[in-house]
Amino acid sequence: MKFRVDRDVLADAVAWAARSLPVRPSAPVLAGLLIDASDEGLVLSSFDYETSARATLNAEVSDEGRALVSGRLLADICRSLPAKPVEMVLDGARVSLTCGSARFSLQTMPVEDYPTLPQMPAATGTVRSDDFAHAVAQAVTAAGRDDMLPVLTGVRIEIDGSTISLLATDRFRLSHRELQWDPRTPDESIAALVPAKVLADTAKSLTAGEQVTIALSASGSGEGIIGFEGTAPGGLRRTTTRLLDGEFPKVRSLFPAEHLTRALVDKAALVESVKRVSLVAERNTAVQLAFSQGVLTLDAGSGDEAQASESIEASVDGDDITTGFNPQFLLDGLTAIDQPVVELAFTQASKPVVISGSVDDTSVDPGFRYLLMPRRLLG
Fold first, then answer.
1. Cβ–Cβ under 8 Å, residues 215 and 120
2. What is the residue range of 37's domain?
3. Which of the chain's ends, N or C, has fewer CB atoms near its CB within 10 Å?
4. pLDDT tens digits for range 30-53
5. How many C-alpha atoms does 378 have within 13 Å on its Cβ side?
6. Are 97 and 21 part of one and the same domain?
7. Parallel, antiparallel, or unpaired: how do β-strands 173-180 and 368-372 relate?
8. Is residue 163 part of a domain?
9. Could you tell me which of 378, 287, 370, 270 has the C-alpha nearest to residue 328?
10. Cβ neighbour number for residue 160 with a 10 Å cutoff
11. Residue 377: inside a domain
12. pTM of the full predicted structure?
């Protein structure tokens, strides 16, 4: 194996492929990055039996061959190299890397012990990369982080014709985001549960190209797989991950059909107010929100402890209402909203609030909805 490649192209591809390497691999070879040089160019791959990453890039290949080296070490080396072409040569059990006057010699691992990467399923459709990345970033806001409840650590992707819905919940909050895409089969309906962290990292990493191809192969036995493909400087990026097994809760019905109180509040003012007032809120205690005509009053703290109170303008339509929320969960939802004015819609104080961006045209979907359970107020 011998090839020559642009330093920036190599560094970007190595960093991308190595980003999903396991911190504690179950087998030493899984910490490796597979380098495959052929007449078709250079392919860098990583795989941990759950998630695979594959970067294809242009390179001047003199001799075909394959080598497996430490992925994190190679990523660190490539990031530090001078801005000159990189040459890599396989010599026996070592790979030599030369860039200008810098030279490295890396120990290889047995290629024959490396697992076969899964095949990319047939393409299901394409979506604008920046729209997809933004939608995923909003949706994962409510995804669970408790590995004891693996189903809740995923994002449910529901495909219905030209609409993709993203749903996530950790039992205390729920996010729902819809976006349009270009399906290969216009009338197809399919659903999948994708690990939230993998989905977020992948969507964010594929914004260099204009579109992302989504390839979904779902099955009822938990052996389904989803793949994502996009372009990047120097070549293609492709990643796959196994779908989560289990039944995602039926959460759509949690969004109420009607509301008795609606409040419109400037998002920036509310975010800053919540941050200030919550400084005195003890751990796991709520910040109280009291809505009355024209005013939202926030309170935190109680008894002999520090207390805080602040009022901001609010347009309130309906009955006065007083409720309370986990301040961090409230801030997570508010900051995920794009619009400068947010709408908080209530049925009653003991029921969840639905937070969304305010749009002038009521027929326009704000795109992102965030449902948040209230917290019991002290006293």
1. yes
2. 2-113
3. C
4. 999 999 999 889 999 999 999 999
5. 16
6. yes
7. antiparallel
8. yes
9. 287
10. 14
11. no
12. 0.91
